[in-house]
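Methods — Computational structure assignment.
A single polypeptide chain was analysed. Its primary sequence is given first, followed by the predicted tertiary structure written as structure tokens.
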Amino acid sequence: MGVERTLVLVKPDGVERGLVGEVISRFERKGLKIRALKMLKMTREMAEEFYSVHREKPFFNDLVEFITSGPIVAMILEGDSAIEVVRLMIGSTDGRKAQPGTIRGDFALSIQNNVVHASDSQESFEREYKIVFSQEEII
């Protein structure tokens, strides 16, 4: 696939539990490069835009409420096949089903409290990162 970029968010549960360093170090040890990194509190408007693909689903409001419930850490990672590599490293959305050794398999408590979000495609990355980062913030 070549060198690509992906967006990763450490969600409020991961920040609250002090897992930010662990998450970042796993990606760095894998050889992924951090091209942008910041802590923020997502506004409701940002969250609604971020999760707009789920707007008609019954869990949309729960997603928005959760991601705005506390600070998050957002990062853009770069590397060979970064999207696929990161998705494999984070594991299944449902932490109860995620493989041990993945971030969610090791730390997630539920489908919602699953520590991280990562873009699932190039198209998702292109839409998502613009909600969180300005061009000036990316190296």
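Note: The chain has one domain: 3-137.
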